[in-house]
UniProtKB/TrEMBL annotation, chain A:
Source organism of this protein record: Microvirga brassicacearum
Domain FAD/NAD(P)-binding: 3-313
Record-given protein name: FAD/NAD(P)-binding oxidoreductase
Classification of source organism: Bacteria, Pseudomonadati, Pseudomonadota, Alphaproteobacteria, Hyphomicrobiales
Entries under InterPro entries matching the protein: BFD-like_2Fe2S-bd_dom, BFD-like_2Fe2S-bd_dom_sf, FAD/NAD-bd_sf, FAD/NAD-binding_dom, Metab_Enz_Cyan_OpOx_G3PDH, Opine_Oxase_asu/HCN_bsu
A Pfam family of this chain: Pyr_redox_2
UniProtKB/TrEMBL annotation, chain B:
Keyword Oxidoreductase on entry: yes
Domain of life: Bacteria
Gene3D superfamilies the UniProt entry points to: D-Amino Acid Oxidase, subunit A, domain 2, FAD/NAD(P)-binding domain
Protein name in UniProt: FAD-binding oxidoreductase
GO cellular component term of the entry, any: cytoplasm
UniProt KW keywords: Oxidoreductase
SUPFAM superfamilies: FAD/NAD(P)-binding domain (SSF51905)
Length: 455, 390, 113
């Protein structure tokens, strides 16, 4: 029997596993988390008195359906939670668990490794109390905790209003929602967003609910700085009329949409291509998710499409595996799925116009702003390194000279902003600035995992 | 077409090429340094950063000591210390046979005036209490040092440029020919150089230039598996090496521990790939945890390698071409070119300007490959796949 | 759904605020030797940040850090434990008796791992 391995226990990975299990392939599902569901649909941690239906509203049914789908295949798959895939070599995955390191071989590999927040730094963003927007939701859903009592939601993302509303519902004081995209851009994107009327209406309802509750809703703002001595005390913004406004708060949720966690895809040999809409390098796939021989990619780890696209693309990738292994030939079903994935991902592209990544902000960052949290490398250090004779103008060379992106997170957080900084400072197109190359391990592994090498 | 008339064209903007250009410029020569990518990006920038004196090939000590003297004056020479640190070097033995080996290495080092301390288990426990029990003896050389290889070559090239060297990046040499006393260097850009001397310092890519002039060497591209850990409290002051090659490690004051290990892996200079097989990373992690047990809870955050040129006798090619006057080779540094780099640059500048150098370089002549050469034990042991020697 | 009271506690030491209650008992642990209380089921990050406003001091410069992405990606929330281990707080469960350090322990303590 063919050995199919799925990495990632979110919507894409679970739907892929379901499809494979339905054909009695007994796939291996490796998930770094201890519980399935991914960042969006994970069950709350034990004992939390969290009413997920109330919290998730219209999305609750999907959450329950996904958890139920997993439960129904639990004994038809080999599920290994708490398992980090840290390297890929040929058809072998190197995995690390609390017990040590071992290998898992595969005939076909589906990577569904999800996404994380994309961040543009601003002065004060490393202060305790500033968290990624997605993280602010995770802390609520997974831990039942607000990131602070008085929270400002800042950046530009469809999740901004949703997260703010969830916080409000549960009793947090939402001091402001500061969207850096002007309202006009949203209006201009509306015709394309209308392709998914329900999603658009839901977005508008979040907005109106927050406005009714009296939450200051700002569009087209410039985030100037976050203030505080040893933790967040306020965020200062310039509103669309040029007025400086200060919102006292003890936490800031910051995010500009999501970026794929594509590190494993790259290690597995996927070709990375520059995507002009997102201004990110994304793995190249065909319409079904094929990224190379025996390599399939699904969900937000390829291109941001949201949870619905993730579920559909997971199923689609699994169908491609089944078809390539000669197990099924039902192409008509795949065609429907393919259309659905295409439509949902196209919608996300329209969203990218309504929630704009502020590429130009990087030019205005003052030299003392930290760009790389891990290695504490400032914007000024990067500019100075580039300004020297024979200075680097490519991100990997900038990394080699300045250590930006060289730390524990391996450029996950600073990467997108570093690309923008290098491109703008060198006066070259962003695709010419390159992307930070991935090296194993994709996340830190302790020396002690090597002890069980003999396995 | 940009035609440059120069005294010397240096092919390859690595450590060797950059130092050579630097010293030539200081002697008033007009130099063009041509690099196919950017300066210091290949093995010059990806190596471990060891400035080790212990355990070198005996015939290399004059060159090596000359180089160490330059390293120790790095800040005076180029205005930047590039994290040069006189860390000392601890050469560790796991058993009596290895102890004999390091004692023998020490004898050679001492004969060249290097001060070596011989430390037994009890002394090691006092001086370096973090060493694992597996280490039964070690020799320590205080003069050995380390520097940051990512910074050095660009810094040297920058100063060379300020001294008048024309540094050309993203320019690959297509053709080198000689007519009369003049070399003609053609590139894939509009640059052409005419010059009296050519220095072939093209690293793992050097062979094609040697072969154009009827000379060759059994160059084998490979890279060591390396990794770096997260920042950890700083306690490993010397660089630490085990005689069996399983651990070559150092900690920088920022806290990161850097490791280079064996066996080396074949690399691909055409595709520019130097893979690091995960099993080698795991094996090296296990070895490091035995030598420095306190690091067991420390996390590895990144692996890398680089493409280095190796030769079967584990000695570089340094010196004048035996077919073509004016052509000088310096390549195939077998993973230990970093320490001798500035010394090689100085010697090559002397050969070009003065016609000779006082530093003995005869063991490194390219002509040695015309005879059967002895394959080094290291070459047999430290690679996955050893290319058959001709 | 239970809600937090409206009374603000501006001087509270913790960054995180519990939005909902948790079944199960409380657990005792320490931060830099000071006794703290969290709830069984908490992540180590939530356990620390409901009590304190930082997780650790940055190795480079010593500024306070409290994590960032909260989903195991940014690697900003690594904390030291008294037993010499070094763990990522957002993906580690809080366990009774843990001793958390915001700065690295002395080498002698690490060596006892």
């Amino acid at each position: 029997m063919s050995n199919v391995v799925v990495v990632g226990g979110g919507p894409a990975g679970i739907r892929a596993a379901c499809m494979l299990a339905a054909h009695r392939l007994r796939p291996v599902l490796l998930d770094e988390a201890r519980n399935v569901g991914g960042q969006g649909y994970r069950a709350p941690s034990p004992g939390l008195r969290l009413d997920m239906d109330a919290l998730m509203g219209g999305e609750a049914a999907k959450y329950h359906a996904l958890q139920a789908a997993f439960a129904s295949i639990r004994d038809q798959i080999e599920y290994r939670p708490g398992t980090l895939v840290w390297a890929i070599e040929g058809k072998t995955l190197h995995v690390a668990t609390d017990e040590g390191s071992s290998t898992v071989s595969f005939d076909a590999l589906i990577l569904a490794t999800g996404a994380m927040d994309r961040i543009m730094p601003l002065p004060g963003w490393t202060l305790p109390g500033v968290f990624a927007l997605g993280g602010a939701q995770v802390s609520l859903k997974d831990q039942g905790c607000f990131i602070g009592r008085r929270v400002a939601f800042c950046g530009s993302s469809p999740l901004l209003n949703l997260a703010a509303l969830q916080y409000r519902k549960l009793g947090a004081d939402v001091v402001a929602v500061c969207d850096t995209t002007p309202l006009g851009a949203k209006v201009r994107a509306a015709p394309q967003l209308a392709a998914a009327p329900r999603t658009m209406m839901r977005g508008i309802s979040y907005l109106t609910s927050l406005m009714r509750a009296g939450t200051p809703m700002l569009h087209g703002v410039t985030l100037l700085r976050i203030e505080g001595k040893s933790r967040v005390e306020a965020i200062i913004v310039r509103d669309c009329r040029g007025r400086e406004r200060r919102f006292a708060c003890d936490a800031v949720a910051l995010g500009y949409g999501l970026k794929p966690e594509a590190q494993l895809a790259e290690l597995a040999g996927a070709e990375m291509r520059f995507d002009a809409t997102s201004r990110l390098w994304l793995p190249k796939i065909d319409a079904d998710g094929r990224a190379g021989r025996s390599l399939y990619l699904a969900g937000d780890s390829v291109v941001i499409g949201g949870a619905d696209a993730a579920e559909a693309s997971g199923e689609l990738a699994a169908r491609a595996v089944l078809s390539d292994l000669g197990i099924v030939h039902a192409r008509s079903v795949a065609r429907g799925l393919r259309r659905r994935v295409f439509r949902l991902r196209r919608f996300q592209r329209a969203l990218a116009r309504a929630f704009v990544w502020p590429a130009n902000r990087v030019k205005d960052l003052s030299d003392d702003v930290a760009l790389c949290r891990c290695e504490n490398v400032s914007v000024g250090e990067i500019r100075r390194a580039m300004d020297q004779a024979l200075g680097p103008i490519e991100v990997n060379r900038v990394k080699a000279i300045t250590r930006c992106g060289m730390g524990r997170c391996q450029g996950r957080v600073c990467g997108p902003a570093l690309q923008e900084l290098v491109a703008s400072h060198a006066g070259i197109p962003i695709e010419a600035a390159g992307r930070l190359r991935v090296q194993a391990p994709v996340k830190p592994i302790p020396l002690s995992v090597a002890r069980t090498l003999a396995e | 077409m940009t035609r440059l008339i120069a005294d010397v064209a240096v092919l390859g903007g690595g450590l060797i090429g950059s130092w050579t250009a630097y010293f030539l410029a200081r002697r008033g020569k007009r130099v063009v340094l041509i690099e196919k990518g950017v300066v210091g990006a290949q093995s010059s920038g990806t190596n471990f950063g060891n400035l080790r004196l212990q355990g070198r090939f005996p015939g290399q000590y004059p060159l090596s000591l000359r180089a160490q003297d330059l390293w120790e004056r790095l800040e005076d020479l180029i205005g930047d210390s590039c994290e040069f640190d006189a860390t000392g070097h601890l050469y560790c033995a796991f058993d009596e046979a290895e102890r004999d080996k390091i004692d023998h290495y020490a004898e050679v080092s001492e004969s060249y005036g290097i001060r070596i301390e011989h430390l037994d288990r009890a002394q090691l426990k006092r001086r370096f209490p973090w060493l694992g029990r597996k280490v039964i003896a070690a020799t320590y050389s205080a003069r050995d040092a380390t520097a940051n290889p990512r910074l050095v070559t660009p810094a040297v090239a920058r100063v060379a440029k300020s001294l008048g060297v024309t540094v050309v990046e993203h320019c690959a040499v297509r053709e080198v020919r000689k007519s009369g006393d003049t070399f003609h260097v053609d590139t894939d850009t509009d640059l052409q150089v005419e010059c009296g001397h050519v220095v072939n310092a093209a690293g793992a890519w050097a062979l094609e230039f040697a072969e154009r002039f009827g000379e060759t060497a059994p160059l084998f591209p490979a890279g060591p598996p390396q990794f770096v850990t997260e920042p950890f409290p700083y306690f490993i002051t010397p660089s630490v090496q085990t005689v069996d090659g399983s651990v070559i490690a150092r900690q920088i004051p920022r806290g990161n521990v850097i490791l280079a290990g064996y066996p080396r892996t074949a690399a691909d200079p055409i595709l520019n790939r130097a893979p690091v097989p995960p099993v080698k990373t795991l094996a090296a992690m296990e070895c490091l945890a035995e030598v420095v047990p306190a690091l067991r809870s420390c996390h590895v955050i990144r692996v890398w390698s680089g493409i280095e040129g190796y030769l079967p006798d584990m000695l570089p090619v340094i010196g004048q071409s035996e077919t073509t006057p004016g052509l000088i080779h310096a390549f195939g540094f077998c993973g230990h070119g970093f320490q001798i780099g500035p010394g090689v640059g100085l010697c090559l500048s002397e050969i070009i300007v003065d016609g000779h150098t006082e530093t003995p370089l005869s063991p490194f002549a390219i002509g040695r490959f015309q005879q059967e050469i002895e394959v080094s034990d290291k070459f047999k042991r430290e690679f996955d796949a050893v290319r058959k020697t001709p | 759904m239970p809600r937090m009271g409206a009374a603000s506690m501006d001087e509270r030491p913790g960054l995180f605020v519990r939005a909902v209650d948790r079944d199960g008992g409380s657990i005792e642990f320490t931060i830099d030797g000071s006794p703290m209380t969290a709830r069984a089921g908490d992540s180590l990050l939530a356990a620390i940040l409901t009590n304190a406003s930082l997780l650790r001091r940055l190795e480079f410069g010593g500024e306070p850090r409290a994590g960032f992405c909260l989903m195991g990606a940014c690697q900003d929330c690594w904390v030291w434990l008294d037993d010499g281990r070094h763990v990522r707080a957002c993906t580690t469960a809080a366990v009774a008796g843990l001793g958390v350090r915001t700065t690295p322990p002395a080498l002698a303590e690490i060596r006892n791992v």
